[in-house]
Design brief:
Blueprint: H1 2-5, H2 8-11, H3 13-31, H4 38-63, H5 70-95, H6 99-128, H7 153-165, H8 184-189, H9 205-212, H10 231-242, H11 258-265, H12 273-280, H13 286-293, E1 298-301, E2 309-312, H14 321-328, E3 334-338, E4 360-362, H15 370-373, E5 384-386, H16 395-400, E6 408-410, H17 418-427, E7 432-434, E8 450-452, E9 457-458, E10 462-467, E11 474-478, E12 489-490, E13 495-497, E14 501-509, E15 513-514, E16 518-524, E17 529-534, E18 566-569, E19 573-594, E20 605-611, E21 618-624, E22 635-656, E23 673-681
Parallel strand pairs: 2-3, 3-4, 4-5, 5-6, 6-7, 9-16
Antiparallel strand pairs: 1-2, 8-10, 10-13, 11-12, 11-14, 14-15, 14-16, 17-19, 18-23, 19-22, 19-23, 20-21, 20-22
Helix pairs in contact: 3-4, 3-6, 4-5, 5-6, 7-10, 10-11
């Protein structure tokens, strides 16, 4: 009998779905003034009423000996029985030939719909906590406190975590495992399995043991369907319990190692302007980002999904008023602008005053002068300004001294005398003025050469050029992926490649040594495709041009909102490439992106399948890749996989996602992303 009771969670959803479907059909047909066939109406009602009866029986069996609150259980049970009787009554009305029955049929249907909703609400309260449907059973906000100084460990830190993540299942109305977690007295008493805190410092105890169980384990706490504890919250609980689960101690009383200190810091309230703007400002539309990209200006959120954005127009020498008018459309979203090495001048500087939320302004190596700097002092939230290698004078020091929020100013290689800067710093201790002598900026190492080509992809051959600012520098390169040195091929003139090539190049001058390595990855693709089918649908924000994006020979940039990438959140990417004809293939390369700050990571594996009929697929290759080490870089690369040559007309590609952010990430365990932009088959 107990086993039959366990079927209640499964059975209870069937009458709900069937009944709602039937109600929707009745409303739709009446709206269209088209009678619903009687056999369809009676079938839905018979099925819904029958499954409702089975649900009531299984629910009564499940409730025997349960730890559920009797008041909530009684309401759910009685309303479930009332709905079941009502469903059979509604079936009687549907079958009746009386005129009055047709008039009351739909109103009765509507009343039962409301009754079903309320019944579901009380059922949700039992299994998911108070306020499941009409209220909020579990707070979505995270723990935050104003100050750590002398904060009470239990009242200010531990209790809010337990209330957020545990009390929904361990309260006076629902006592899972006989455990109440609403007060210190009940916590110390424990549940039906005894105390939840260990008296032995070397053991975890019941509570922490269940927290550390794999998510798939039945006894894992909180349950898989509930909001999970963050890594910082787990550290907090471990620290508290290891200190004898004290209920009256403060943070000042307990020693905290570095790990605990970092966890505690994460609970401090973020009252920064950017946090406040996040609550009130809507994200920018994708169309605006693409419009900027078409003008050579990139914009991307400071973190994934955040409404505030960073704008980069560095090196753009044709900035116009129209560009700034386009930026002005979403001026309140912009917190950083990089205009370095652009034609930004005093005339265009008038537009700077529009960006009321600007925190960081970069205008190095631009024609801007003191006149243009006048427009900066109206920026009430500015924290950093970089005017390196501009023509500003000491007058600009007076201007920036009026910006109360300013913390850093970079003014090296300007018209400001070093002695004047030193005097200014002595007078304005709060502002960090970064200035160093010109010879510090003298080049001590060679930059790598610039590799020039029309595209990353080609069919027959591709012309390659390389350049360097100093004419007397020598350039050396390799085409096999090896690291070049002065014994490698010397670059004298443009050359062509006719196969997939990894080009690496360095700069050398007598007395300077070798530069860092410049690298470019060129892919040859001479295979035509008749169709590309995505088996997993990308997130609606990152659909690019659908499956065609994978074979259009256009590479996405490191700006993942450039409209060239397919983005997948918390799942793998799968696609079938249908070739125009049978081809012999032996390798594949998949273009990928990594931007950990935006929750985007390189894939951890590839699987390749081949078929000649599009139905029967055989795995021909599999490759795993190590998870990424801690970093905050934005970069892209091809993942390459080779396999024994095979003839095929269909290739299935599975790109495996890490699925979750790694432990070193600021939001460990959150859904991670993979971004795919091009697949090259050879």
């Amino acid at each position: 009998m107990e086993v039959m009771g366990n079927f209640h969670p499964l059975l209870v959803h069937l009458p709900i779905g069937i009944f709602l479907f039937g109600f929707a059909l009745e409303c739709y047909c009446r709206l269209k003034k088209t009678p619903l066939p009687s056999f369809i109406s009676s079938f839905t009602l018979v099925t819904a009423a029958s499954f409702a009866l089975f649900s009531v029986i299984s629910g009564l069996l499940l409730a025997q000996g349960s730890a559920y609150n009797e008041e909530g259980l009684s309401l759910h049970r009685n309303m479930g029985i009332a709905f079941t009787l009502g469903a059979f009554g509604l079936l009687f009305l549907q079958q009746s030939k009386a005129v009055w029955s047709n008039k009351v049929f739909l109103p009765a249907y509507s009343i039962l719909f409301i009754l079903l909703t309320i019944t579901g609400h009380y059922g949700g309260n039992i299994t998911h906590g108070e306020g499941f449907l009409f209220g909020q059973n579990e707070a979505n906000s995270s723990l935050s406190i104003a100050s750590l100084e002398n904060a009470m460990v239990y009242n200010d830190l531990v209790k809010p975590v337990l209330d957020l993540k545990c009390v929904a299942c361990h309260n006076e109305k629902k006592t899972e495992g006989g455990l109440l977690m609403t007060s210190p007295e009940w916590l110390l008493k424990g549940g039906e399995h005894g105390p939840i805190f260990s008296t032995n410092k070397d053991t975890l105890g019941t509570l922490l043991t269940r927290v550390h169980l794999p998510l798939e384990e039945k006894e894992h706490m909180p349950p898989k369907s509930k909001k999970q504890l963050s890594s910082q919250e787990i550290v907090l609980l471990e620290w508290w319990i290891q200190n004898k689960a004290c209920f009256d101690c403060s943070t000042a009383n307990l020693e905290a190692n570095e790990k605990v200190a970092l966890a505690l810091q994460s609970f401090l309230e973020d009252n920064s302007p950017i946090k406040q703007w996040e609550k009130t400002i809507d994200p920018v539309p994708q169309d605006w980002i693409l419009a900027l990209a078409s003008k050579g200006i990139t914009a991307y959120p400071i973190t994934f999904g955040h409404p505030m954005v960073i704008v980069n127009a560095r090196g753009k020498q044709n900035l116009t008023k129209k560009d700034f008018k386009l930026l002005k459309k979403y001026q309140e979203n912009i917190v950083e602008i990089n205009l370095g090495a652009s034609n930004m001048n005093d005339t265009l500087a008038v537009f700077l005053k529009n960006f009321e939320h600007l925190l960081k302004l970069q205008i190095p190596q631009t024609p801007i002068t003191d006149k243009g700097m006048e427009y900066v002092k109206s920026l009430d939230h500015l924290l950093t300004i970089n005017a390196f290698a501009t023509n500003v004078t000491s007058k600009s020091l007076d201007i920036i001294s009026e910006i109360n929020t300013l913390e850093n100013a970079y003014l090296t290689d300007t018209q400001i005398n070093k002695n004047i800067m030193e005097a200014f710093v002595a007078k304005n201790g709060k502002l960090r003025l970064h200035y160093i002598s010109e010879d510090t900026f003298a080049q001590t190492a060679l930059d790598p050469p610039t590799i020039l080509s029309k595209t990353d992809f080609f069919r027959d051959s591709l012309a390659i050029e390389m350049a360097y600012v100093f004419e007397n520098a020598s350039l050396f390169y390799t085409l096999d992926g090896s690291t070049p040195d002065t014994t490698s091929v010397k670059y004298n003139r443009p050359f062509s490649i006719d196969k997939t090539t990894v080009l690496k190049a360095v700069t050398y001058m007598e007395g300077w040594g070798l530069s860092a390595v410049a690298e470019a990855d060129f892919k040859k693709s001479n295979i035509d495709y008749s169709k590309v089918e995505l088996l997993e649908i990308p997130n609606e924000k990152y659909t690019a041009n659908g499956g065609k994006s994978l074979v259009d020979l256009k590479r996405g940039s490191t700006n993942f909102v450039d409209g060239m990438w397919l983005g997948f959140e918390g799942k793998n990417s799968e696609a079938i490439l249908t070739l125009s004809k049978s081809e012999k293939v032996n390798s594949m390369a998949v273009g990928t992106l990594s931007a950990p700050a935006s929750w985007i990571f390189y894939p951890i594996g590839l699987e390749i399948f081949s078929s000649n009929n599009g139905i029967d697929y055989k795995k021909i290759a599999q490759q795993s890749y190590s998870p990424e080490e801690p970093n905050n870089d934005v970069k892209k690369k091809f993942l390459e996989i080779s396999f024994p040559e095979v003839a095929a007309t269909h290739l299935k590609v599975v790109v495996k996602s890490p699925l979750k952010n790694p432990e070193w990430h600021p939001n460990p365990g959150g859904k991670s992303w993979i971004f795919i932009d091009e697949i090259i088959v050879d």
